[in-house]
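Ticket opened by: R.M.
Priority: normal
Category: complex prediction / small molecule

The reporter submitted a protein together with flavin-adenine dinucleotide and asked that the result be attached to this ticket for the collaborator who will pick it up next week. Submitted input follows.
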Amino acid sequence: MSDASFDYDVIVIGAGYGGFDAAKHAADHGLKTAIIESRDMGGTCVNRGCVPSKALLAASGKVRELADDSHLASFGIHAAPVRFERQKIADHANQLVQTIRTNLTKTLERAGVTILRGHGRLEGAQRVGLREPSGVDRVLNAKDVIIATGSDPFVPPGIETDGRTVFTSDEAINLEWLPRWIAIIGSGYIGLEFADVYTALGCEVTMIEAMDKVMPTFDPDIAKIAGRHLIDSRDIDARSGLLARKVTPGCPVQIELADFNSRELVETLEVDAVLVATGRVPSSKGLNLESLGIETNRGFLPIDDTMRVLVNDQPVPHLWAVGDVTGKLMLAHTAAAQGSVAVDNILGHQRQIDYRSIPAATFTHPEISSVGLSEADAKTLASEQGFQLGSVRSYFKANSKALAELESDGLMKLLFNKTSGEVLGAHIYGLHAADLIQEVANAVARRQSVRQLSTEVHTHPTLSEVVEVAYKQAASQLVA
Ligand SMILES: Cc1cc2nc3c(=O)[nH]c(=O)nc-3n(C[C@H](O)[C@H](O)[C@H](O)COP(=O)(O)OP(=O)(O)OC[C@H]3O[C@@H](n4cnc5c(N)ncnc54)[C@H](O)[C@@H]3O)c2cc1C
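Result attached by the on-call engineer:
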């Protein structure tokens, strides 16, 4: 039931995946809802992230497959030399963005959400300022306010971008040209996905990683096998322990590489282009957080597990934050899940988020995925709680479907509690790893035991049997 003393029951600031889910969920439950967007409906994911990057990966993945003569010859297939049109690949991504953006906007309108264009900010408790594109400024009040302002690419100091020769993922998704030689700074999931696209389309890649080894955020065993296939076997020169301390746009682009520890100059590279993929920073500037005394953690908004914004560890009444701006597992489905948790709590249905069961995927060819605890965190938990940690590996080379596809490079690592059998985490590299992880994510969400999971029947022959084998091995190792 709406409260007539407010303009809206809920105002959401930011129409990315987090804001979209929150606004739709609120309107679907009868709350009078408005959403404020200063840029493009759909935010990063739809316009500059998941959607266009997956379109580029889909197209370039097909080029890679058709260009792999020896792989095709193993099936007895001989294709003509593969040709592609860069502009058509870029158009495919762009058209997909437009379709999904339109669908998302219509979905909100159909749900009854009021879409307000402009820049939103807080104006004290239960009040939101709106600066419209025309310059008109007004203040609205709402029973509850949800901040969902997302994030932007992080460009480290010393790196100058011009959007054409030195750029971030925001520009890379337009695929405006194909540099002969591109340096990618960062070997996280965004750097890896673009390296996959560029190498498939014939570019030479130098990957620069500041940490002492590439793919530092991945499970070390998965990084080893994935790195062998996704980096070492391709036209990629991976350099770790090096800091790109100065990057100057131009033709060529100049990169000063320094030793990460000593900061001493090691080498100067001259390349055609540079993609800066060094992480993302929260979009929380200009929100007038001071009006409610909110202090951020390096720009990230502090929240509890119900999505309430915290000041001095205490929730601010009627103020919520979701998505990348909160800095928790910065992924589209996390933002969406947080959005619906916030609204459930607004509706009075107490609910907390379970970050442990949220999966993550890198859409390279093949893919990488994970859910739950890292091995290091699982070891810490095991010693704190006094249980024995189990770890088993299941290989794609023992899987009939992977063998039939001649795609048997792959590994799944499953972490579990050897006494209770509870699944604690999984890390996968291999064909369709992003789909395979969902089954384990569901098990983690239900805190299920491999004792039960190992009895569940999997379709033969499917890649899901890689997971079944892991569950069975784990069940055979349970103690007592
Ligand atoms: C290249 C790339 C690939 C990615 N691939 C994946 C993937 O495959 N899977 C996945 O799960 N995630 C992926 N992500 C991450 C995903 O895009 C983000 O986690 C997700 O978009 C976060 O959603 P959000 O709603 O928190 O914020 P955003 O999507 O960033 O949306 C925030 C919105 O708020 C608006 N805004 C900001 N400030 C204001 C203001 N003051 N007033 C009004 N509006 C404002 C912004 O304009 C923006 O539209 C990818 C990201 C990138 C960059």
